[in-house]
Design goal:
Elements (H helix, E strand, L loop, with lengths): L5 H7 L13 E5 L2 E4 L20 H38 L14 H13 L1 H17 L14 H11 L12 H14 L6 H41 L10 E2 H12 L7 H4 L11 E2 L1 H11 L5 H38 L7 E2 H14 L2 H4 L18 H6 L11 H35 L9 H8 L1 H13 L1 H6 L5 H12 L19 H11 L14 H22 L18 H6 L26 H21 L9 H7 L6 H8 L6 H13 L5 E2 L2 E2 L5 H8 L4 H11 L4 H12 L13 E2 L1 H12 L5 H14 L4 H31 L7 E2 H8 L8 H7 L15 E2 L1 H14 L4 H15 L4 H22 L6 H19 L4 E9 L9 E8 L4 H4 L3 E2 L7 H7 L3 E3 L24 E7 L5 E8 L12 H41 L5 E8 L9 E8 L5 E4 L4 E2 L9 H8 L3 E5 L2 E9 L5 E10 L6 H26 L15 H23 L2 H8 L3 H6 L5 H25 L12 H4 L5 H8 L12 H8 L4 H7 L2 H21 L1 H4 L11 E4 L10
Antiparallel strand pairs: 1-2, 3-4, 5-8, 6-7, 9-10, 11-12, 11-16, 12-13, 14-15, 15-16, 17-18, 17-23, 18-19, 18-20, 19-24, 21-22, 22-23
Helix pairs in contact: 3-6, 4-5, 7-10, 7-11, 11-30, 11-31, 15-17, 19-23, 28-29, 28-32, 29-32, 32-35, 32-36, 34-35, 35-36, 37-38, 37-41, 38-41, 41-43, 41-44, 43-44, 44-49, 44-52, 47-50, 47-52
């Protein structure tokens, strides 16, 4: 084609932005077209691996021959050396060594080099020559007869000898013993000559020797360390609870190591790859296997990391006990479900279940009531079941999920503040006393004896006084309450939570002063083996419970008549304090039953005791009640955790503690030995008296209890010979079903898993097993269904089974009919075949059915196309109009249509292959981690495979999406941008732009909404050839352009396929290929919008979390998970960790979201509990409490979950707990709306003017819009008197009441300022002209604006409207000084609603001002490791 104009080239040459980072927003131009805002997208196709060239055969043979020859030569050299060594050994035996030659060895540096040279070159020949010469002299007696003339010349003889024995010419000369020793000396001497080969070789050998010795030493140390580690691990094995075989399941230990390796501070993520976690509980490890298995994975760990591992193992051993305890409860509740399910229908009534929980909660003793969770509150009650005004305006702290939680926490805070004050006063008095001592020369007179005692006991007595003041009034109010009930609260509360301090407490804990003094016992104890000084475990808290209970028993033993000589019982570290015994066999209580009240025994108080001592003994019970928060993970409130730890570490004398407690205590060192011995005791193999069976409900429930109706109905169809032709299709449907085993929430009934989860949430993790047993007994005796309810349940199950069976049959029939995978059927073709049913006798009835269904509109005279859902609905209506049993009629119609459709075997195979390729496109979307690039890849892969397999063609393809043309509007209001293409065409096609004024058929496809096939592009004249280098003679091929429709049948892009790269001359597309490509376009559209819907949900969650973090402070982190199909076809679904929001509200979005498998979540199974049941789960791990909340699809199944980590606290304050509920309600409503719009189930709801801008912008504000609608609906429900009460807050009233106390006066003044500022902020939204007037500061004039018109204006106000002009800085000035806690404490519903309304309006206005900058898609690009995001409009810190 002609060269593209310069303007278009410049636009196309702009920087590329990956698809996942900026998804294009959409805006509507007409009813049938959807365009996007300008976006710069790039598709990174997978590069095909080049085929490796085959090696030449001759080269391979040559290499083999050369290698064989080299081996032979090497072997010859080795044999020769060996032969030489053997000959030397034989010669040594004949001639012994002469050690006289060793005298030549001398390492003197001055002669070393010369000596070495002579010994090497000359002396080995010269010395034997001299010896020979001397022997000749003796033989000829030349030395004896001096006068005897001789012709013998010694010099000549020696010279001749040297010449005859020249070593360079004589091979292998025989050597004497002297020469052999001289050779050895020479070799030893050469080593010492510097800068020689021998010297360097010697040094290398020495280094090698040293390193070898070092390695041997290190290996020896490693062996010793490994043995010691194995011994430590074998000792740690006793901490674990074992199955009946005496083993620990292998998967548990693998999870322990996986959790440890995942800790970022150790940087051991690479070790996780070596862990092949099993998904079965059958294999186990005994003691030896336990130590060997762990040692094999930690051989290279340092000692300090190994110590941390031992601590981690101890923690996990305790966690595993809690997991087993929870599993026992779940097994108990599962059996209860089967018992209550009399009709075996698999469901129980939800409302009846919740009603029985409320009854049980009301009847249970107060001793254990605070351990349970209130079934009248969320999460037991859904958001939709709570009155709107109550949900947003109720601030009653008594409605918390835990009874009196805020009261206890506030009491603890008051106690801390008083301790601070007393500590400061004590320090001031000590400083003053020292100052006085320095002034006076003589010492002051000694104080009286009583004053000395007071001084000695000042520390603990100071705390005792503070508690007396704190609980003096409650004690008076409970004068008539039997003391045994107060004791019940003490004993029950002490069992309260497993989240206690890890260090064991002393048995003497009965005094009121213990609350401030038990830190001494913490420092005095021996730490548990492998877990010293660690917090948050449950094992030590068990011992604390036992010892505290023993202390109260000992203190009352004489009054009760029990054995006085009984000391503290020996508590086992493994027992959970025997909760069942604490319920039934407490020494100071007599219970009538699990729900009855106790009958107290009268206590005889010594008449001679002083009144102060009586007060302390009476208040001790309540002091134990308040001790629970300080022992549950050191605090129930994270803000004061450090203050608590500092305060509770003050040293307190043992004597003073003994005096106050009034009981004898052992010396400190003896107590340490006792605690040390207890820590070394092996763990009990029972949990509250119950043995572990070795099984896991979480692993076995699918085999034993799970019932999947679709599988049952599919098996019934397989057994029916009438539908033989559909069996293979149904098997494929079941095989391609991505995510299984998730329960759908319906608000009416519970299935087994939901029932078990609700009961487990109600009981909690702190209650003993006896409470679960009592709950089970209560349900068995109380749960009853009437005959009508049983019949109704059976009918519901039958209808559900029929719907599933009908759906399977009709889907299989649709797929058989649509053999080419186009995704649609022609309505006329369907009617033509249906009307022949029973020879046309039912034709009129079928025509009536068409009157009750709204078919999709046909455009420009096109035929009406039915999708799979529309086809099923049409057949269902037809069946309902026919006479007879509905089940039989359906089977008859399906059988008739099935037999009427004749498909060849080749068509069946082609259909099967194409269904697989289409499924892979959708599967890529569901497993992409919210990225559209895998969808592009699988789409082109499906097109290419089908063309090669069924068309014998080589194709090219690209996808173009509509965008709004902002840069060059004169060339058309919209443009088409190529966002993805096949790999070969990327340099020419990718990111190119097509305008309306350019050639091409793509805009014709957009306008007409139907595919266009050009058989020969070279003769068309209106085709754009992106590759300008292609010659005109090489432009032979076909082109097929298909429109991309969304759920509303609006066109948002074009899919183009061509055969320009195909070498065949005839390469046109045949009809079955065109129909399949239409199916590819349809599936791509579904997958594309699936990814975008998940992206919008993430955007909504980020916005909601930003709002929540602005009003709360005690949330540690929130992790967002999405449910995805498992990579393994046979395994369960997985969770993808999409993003993590930290304590500052900063969200880190992962580029490649980590995958979480069920088999690696033995200790974090609360994530899969939530997604399995679609219910809220409250659980804890390693001392941190988690609230896991499901994100539900419109069908009720969980599409993801939010894991809210609230740290080492039992629960959030009620205000923060309510704000969490508000956020989740709005997020869930926004998810329903987004999912409904993407699937076409609901129409798009445009409320605010800003929502018309685009999809991305709308996803960023939909959270605020829904919350704004909720607040407006609440304000409409208020009465006029609710507003009138606010007008009574006047400064004049405050002046008249100055006679009151200062604190009350200040509180009243603060409330008046709050009311005035909130109302002024609201008034400024509708009367901005008042900002420059003094009337705004006149309260009497401000009152006039508070009328019924104000509420009407609030409810119809659009803060994003273009005509709204408001001074945001002035409004923010009025409300910025009022915190969320201040508004909550004020406790007025109107102020609460208006406070939230103002903040939401301000947020929306700020977003509307910086529209394109504030709201961006939250996902990171592929080039980033991660991306950080906050609530839209807020600045981000630099990475």
């Amino acid at each position: 084609m002609d060269e593209i104009k310069s303007q278009e080239c410049n636009l196309a040459g702009q920087p590329n932005v990956p698809t996942s980072s900026t998804k294009a927003p959409t805006t509507e131009i007409s009813g049938n077209v959807v365009i996007r805002k300008p976006a710069k997208v790039i598709f990174s196709s997978d590069e095909t691996k080049p085929k490796s060239k085959l090696e030449q055969p001759w080269k391979k043979n040559l290499l083999e021959r050369v290698e064989a020859s080299a081996r032979k030569m090497q072997q010859k050299v080795i044999d020769k050396d060996n032969m030489k060594k053997e000959l030397e050994k034989k010669s040594e035996k004949k001639l012994p060594k002469d050690n006289l030659a060793k005298e030549w060895f001398n390492t003197e540096s001055t002669t070393l080099k010369t000596r070495a040279y002579l010994l090497d070159k000359l002396l080995p020949t010269l010395v034997p020559g001299m010896e020979k010469m001397l022997m000749q002299l003796e033989k000829k007696k030349i030395l004896t007869d001096d006068d005897f003339p001789t012709k013998f010349d010694p010099i000549n003889y020696l010279g001749e000898y040297l010449m005859r024995n020249n070593p360079y010419y004589i091979k292998d000369p025989e050597m004497s013993g002297y020469q052999r020793v001289m050779r050895d000396v020479t070799e030893d001497l050469k080593v010492h000559v510097p800068d020689t080969i021998c010297n360097r070789v010697s040094k290398m050998k020495e280094n090698v020797k040293q390193k070898r010795e070092q390695r041997e030493y290190i290996n020896t140390i490693k062996v010793k360390v490994a043995i010691m580690r194995k011994q430590a691990l074998q000792e740690q094995f006793d901490e674990w609870i074992l199955d009946p075989r005496g083993m620990i399941p292998t998967v548990v230990i693998q999870n322990v190591l996986h959790e440890f390796f995942q800790k970022p501070e150790f940087e051991l993520e690479s070790h996780c790859k070596q862990l092949n976690i099993t998904d079965s509980m059958e294999s186990g490890l005994n003691k030896m296997e336990f130590s060997e298995y762990i040692s094999s994975h930690i051989a290279d760990l340092k000692s300090d990391i190994f110590e941390e591992l031992l601590k981690h193992l101890c923690h996990c051993a305790d966690e595993f006990r809690e997991v087993i305890k929870s599993d026992i409860k779940r097994q108990m509740f599962a059996d209860l479900f089967l018992y209550c399910d009399h009709g075996k229908v698999g469901i129980l009534d939800r409302q009846r279940t919740l009603a029985l929980l409320e009854t049980f909660y009301d009847r249970i003793t107060r001793k254990h009531k605070h351990l349970l969770r209130n079934p009248r509150q969320w999460p037991f009650v859904e958001f939709e079941e709570i009155d709107l005004l109550e949900f947003w305006g109720d601030m009653d702290n008594q409605k918390h999920i835990y009874e009196d939680f805020d009261k206890v926490l506030l009491g603890m805070n008051a106690l801390l503040s008083e301790k601070h004050e007393s500590k400061n006063q004590n320090q001031l008095s000590e400083n003053q006393q020292k100052h006085d001592e320095q002034k006076k020369s003589t010492p002051p007179p000694s104080p009286p004896e009583e004053q000395k005692e007071t001084t000695a006991e000042q520390g603990p007595q100071r705390i005792s006084t503070a508690e007396q003041e704190l609980y003096e009034e409650p004690e008076i109010k409970q004068e008539n309450v039997p003391e045994s009930i107060i004791e019940q609260e003490k004993s029950g509360t002490e069992q309260g939570s497993r989240r206690s301090s890890m260090i064991e407490q002393e048995p003497q804990r009965e005094s009121i002063a213990e609350h401030g003094a038990y830190t001494e016992s913490e420092r005095g104890q021996e730490p548990q083996r492998g877990s010293d000084s660690e917090q948050g475990t449950r094992r030590e808290s068990v011992t604390e419970q036992g010892t505290r209970r023993e202390g109260s028993t000992t203190g009352q033993s004489q009054r009760k008549g029990s054995t006085t000589g009984q000391g503290p019982r020996k508590a086992s570290d493994s027992e959970y304090g025997s909760h069942r015994e604490s319920i039934i066999e407490e020494p100071h209580t007599e219970e009538q039953g699990p729900y009855g009240e106790t009958i107290p025994e009268q206590e005889d108080v010594d008449s001679t005791s002083q009144s102060r001592e009586v007060r302390i003994s009476k208040t001790s019970a309540e002091s134990e009640y308040i001790e629970i928060p300080s022992q549950e993970k050191k605090s129930w409130e994270l803000i004061h955790e450090e203050e608590l730890s500092k305060e509770l570490q003050e040293p307190i004398p043992t004597s003073s503690k003994t005096n106050i407690s009034g009981s004898d205590s052992a010396p400190s060192d003896i107590r340490k030995d006792i605690q040390k011995d207890k820590s070394c005791e092996p763990k009990s193999q029972k949990i509250e008296g119950k043995s572990w069976s070795g099984g896991f409900f979480a692993c076995d429930w699918r085999k034993k209890y799970a019932k999947f109706e679709d599988e049952d109905q599919a098996n019934l169809i397989y057994d029916n010979s009438k539908f033989t032709d559909l069996h293979s299709i149904i098997r494929n449907i079941q095989f391609y079903k991505e995510i299984k085993d998730r329960s759908a929430f319906n608000g009416v009934s519970f299935n087994l898993f939901q029932f078990v989860q609700v009961l487990e949430t109600f009981v909690g993790e702190d209650a003993p097993l006896s409470v679960s047993e009592s709950l089970t007994s209560f349900f068995k005796s109380s749960y009853a269904e009437t005959k009508e309810e049983k019949m109704s349940a059976l009918e519901q199950v039958r209808q559900n089974a029929f719907q599933i069976r009908r759906g399977l049959l009709l889907e299989a029939l649709f797929q058989k009919w649509d053999s080419d995978g186009s995704g649609f059927l022609d309505l006329n073709e369907v009617d033509e075949l249906l009307y022949t049913y029973k020879d046309g006798m039912e034709k009129e009835s079928m025509k009536k059915a068409k009157l009750h269904i709204q078919f999709p509109k046909s455009h420009h005279g096109h035929e009406v196309k039915l999708s799979s859902k529309q086809f099923q609905k049409y057949i269902e209506l037809v069946v309902s109009e026919l006479r007879g049993n509905e089940d039989q009629v359906l089977e008859s119609v399906v059988e008739f249509l099935m037999n009427s459709l004749k498909r060849s075997h080749i068509e069946g195979l082609r259909n099967c292959a194409r269904r697989k390729w289409l499924h892979q496109i959708q599967h890529a979307a569901e497993t992409s981690g919210v990225s559209v690039e895998p969808v592009y890849t699988e789409t082109f892969k499906a097109l290419t495979q089908d063309a090669e397999t069924h068309g014998n063609k080589k194709i090219s393809a690209h996808i173009s999406l509509l965008e709004e043309n902002e840069l060059l509007p004169d060339r058309g209001s919209v443009l088409l941008r190529n966002v993805a293409c096949t790999l070969d065409d990327a340099p020419f096609v990718l990111n190119r732009v097509l305008y309306r004024d350019m050639e091409g058929i793509s805009f014709t496809v957009v306008d007409e909404g139907k595919p266009i096939h050009v058989p020969q592009v070279q003769y068309h004249g209106n085709i754009v050839f992106w590759n300008n280098s292609r010659s005109k003679n090489d432009r032979n091929g076909s082109l097929l352009a298909l429109p991309l429709h969304d759920a509303y049948m609006r066109i948002f892009g074009v899919l183009a396929v061509d055969t320009l790269r195909d070498p065949h001359k005839i390469n046109i597309f045949v009809p079955h290929e065109i129909r399949f490509y239409q199916g590819v376009a349809n599936v791509f559209s579904t997958a594309y919008h699936y990814v975008h819907s998940r992206e919008h949900i993430l955007h909504i969650v980020i916005t909601g979390l930003g709002w929540l973090y602005n009003v709360t402070s005690n949330i540690i982190s929130i992790t967002t998970y999405f449910v995805e199909p498992s990579p393994d076809q046979d395994s369960d679904y997985v969770l993808r960790n999409m993003m993590v929001t930290g304590q500052l509200g900063l969200t880190e979005i992962h580029t490649n979201p980590p995958t979480t498998f069920r088999k690696s979540c033995v200790f974090r199974d609360f994530l899969f509990k939530c997604t399995d049941s679609s219910e809220v789960v409250l659980d804890s791990i390693y001392g941190e409490t988690h609230i896991v909340i499901p994100l539900r699809e419109r069908t009720g199944e969980a599409l993801g979950a939010l894991d809210v980590n609230i740290g080492r606290t039992r629960m959030l304050l009620y205000q923060e707990y309510k704000d969490l509920q508000k956020m989740m309600k709005v997020i869930q409503a926004a998810c329903y709306e987004i999912l409904g719009e993407c699937s076409g189930e609901i129409k798009k709801n445009i409320i605010l003017e800003m929502e018309k801008v685009g999809e991305v912008q709308r996803a960023g504000i939909i959270f605020f819009r829904i919350m704004l609608q909720e607040l407006q609906a609440c304000l409409q429900l208020l009465s006029s008197m609710d507003f009138v009460t606010l007008l009574l807050y006047d400064h004049n009233t405050q002046i008249e009441s100055t006679s009151s106390e200062d604190s009350k006066s200040m509180e009243l003044k603060a409330n008046i300022n709050l009311v005035h500022d909130i109302l002024k902020g609201v008034i400024l939204f509708f009367h901005p002209e008042l900002e420059s007037s003094s009337d705004l500061e006149d309260w009497d004039k401000d009152k006039l604006y508070v009328n019924r018109y104000l509420v009407e204006s609030i409810c119809s106000f659009d803060p994003t409207a273009s005509h709204v002009k408001v001074n945001l800085q002035l409004i923010n000035k009025y409300i910025k000084d009022h915190s969320r806690i201040e508004v909550w404490k004020f406790g007025n519903t109107v102020i609460e609603l208006l406070y939230h309304w103002i903040h939401i309006c301000l947020a929306l206005m700020q977003l509307s001002k910086k529209l394109n900058k504030a709201i961006v898609p939250p996902l990171p690009s592929k080039s980033d490791s991660s991306r950080y995001a906050k609530m839209p409009g807020e600045p981000l810190p630099e990475k």
